């Protein structure tokens, strides 16, 4: 009875240990992979057209969903913000509230989450499929490095397009907030913009927002690429990898956001 | 003796501890078309990957042009691979590039030829496989046989001296099969190359190759010219050549005794 329990506990422990070691190996693999991608990055700059093509694809792919989401997020921010601010008689501050929330947090974070779901999954599926259909092997046999030719351009495309998309998100979000606050609710037009201009700081707010979205760009793209490259070369393997891209990117974005915010906000 | 462009010497290899090749010896004389035959899962594809340096042998070695493949560094390996063309089992065409761009790919990667020259070369290669008219199609618009031929044009884009084919006939109708057979032979002879054809289609293969190796259980079980093998009375070769279901290559995956298994759970 007692020894039965003991073997059960041992079995569970062993299972957990195996999982842990596996994850550690995978993480090591991911780090090595990232190293290679950086090492081979020269190639993707020497042949810029490859990278530009990928920027076009990832950017265009996520553009519509990001613009539409930004518009709604901006409108909701204005509604919620107005509701609270007017209780304290400072409803003209609505412009600042919308702009700061977008530039500092929601722009980079929501863009990254949408990017992971739209462009990230597409990257993982594409690379996984290229692997499953031996396209990467074929490339290797032609003495062309798949990391240099396929992975690195996609990486830099992601890193470059993320801040651009986040900037667009913030702009369209502010527009959405404006439409709700000024024409709809009737906040003073001049106050809305002047308050915003006076209280959004270039260094503290905008630069920090850009830093965040660059970091998210690195994380999301690298995760998507690694999951695709590491996927078992089967239909099931690729579909699992795609799911993992969304889960891991989202967690990474939220965790990184917390860490970066805690460094950026000086008490 | 020195005229073997590829030599496989006592080669052993296994995935994760499971031995797949147990001391394989083969030679591929310059200018010949040589077939490697064996059942599915006998490690034929793996053998091609070992020749191409994508895998490292656990024992023994592969020499290409006198150089030991797994002793090469990255640059050495690239130099060796520049001399090889490989046709993957399902073509492995780049799905995001047109037929034209697929064939142009190795030229763009490895040469600085001007666009007009690339165009002429691509059209020449596509013409050789009869698909010049399909240049602007995307790989998804091709049938299996056409994709295989485009992949062949891409594999020979830089006039390799060794061409490897992984199951070039799998899933092809008899007409496409004949077409591919003729192509392999004529490309080999036109380029003065050496071809290695991995397959299990006995009849097609015997009609056009110069020499055949049979692999089974990780070793070469028989070898010879097609004529010698047709008249061979080795049981393995006989089974393979005449397509018998059971023989030295068992039909059954290893299993417990059938009667015992049927009776299990019945109280007898
Ligand atoms: N990357 C791999 N990892 C582990 N096992 C593999 C891998 N590739 C192939 N195998 C196994 O090796 C054996 C031989 O594979 P392969 O060389 O593809 O055989 P063939 O081409 O003769 O059908 C198969 O049993 C296959 O499951
Ligand atoms: Mg195979």
From TrEMBL, chain A:
GO terms for molecular function: phospholipid transporter activity. It is a multi-pass membrane protein. It comes from Pseudomethylobacillus aquaticus. Part of the ABC transporter complex MlaFEDB, which is involved in a phospholipid transport pathway that maintains lipid asymmetry in the outer membrane by retrograde trafficking of phospholipids from the outer membrane to the inner membrane. Probably responsible for the translocation of the substrate across the membrane. Belongs to the MlaE permease family. GO terms for cellular component: ATP-binding cassette (ABC) transporter complex. It comes from the Bacteria. It is found in: Cell inner membrane. Keywords: Cell inner membrane, Cell membrane, Membrane, Transmembrane, Transmembrane helix, Transport. Pfam families: MlaE (PF02405). The complex is composed of two ATP-binding proteins (MlaF), two transmembrane proteins (MlaE), two cytoplasmic solute-binding proteins (MlaB) and six periplasmic solute-binding proteins (MlaD). Its main location: membrane. The chain crosses the membrane at residues 55-82, 94-115, 162-185, 206-226, 246-265. InterPro entries: ABC_MlaE_roteobac (IPR003453), MlaE_Permease (IPR053408), Permease_MalE (IPR030802). This is Intermembrane phospholipid transport system permease protein MlaE.
UniProtKB/TrEMBL annotation, chain B:
It holds the Pfam family ABC_tran. It comes from the Bacteria. GO terms for molecular function: ATP binding; ATP hydrolysis activity. Gene3D superfamilies: P-loop containing nucleotide triphosphate hydrolases. Keywords: ATP-binding, Cell membrane, Membrane, Nucleotide-binding, Transport. InterPro entries: AAA+_ATPase (IPR003593), ABC_transporter-like_ATP-bd (IPR003439), ABC_transporter-like_CS (IPR017871), P-loop_NTPase (IPR027417). SMART domains: AAA. The keyword Cell membrane applies. Residues 6-242 form the ABC transporter domain. This is ABC transporter ATP-binding protein. It comes from Pseudomethylobacillus aquaticus.
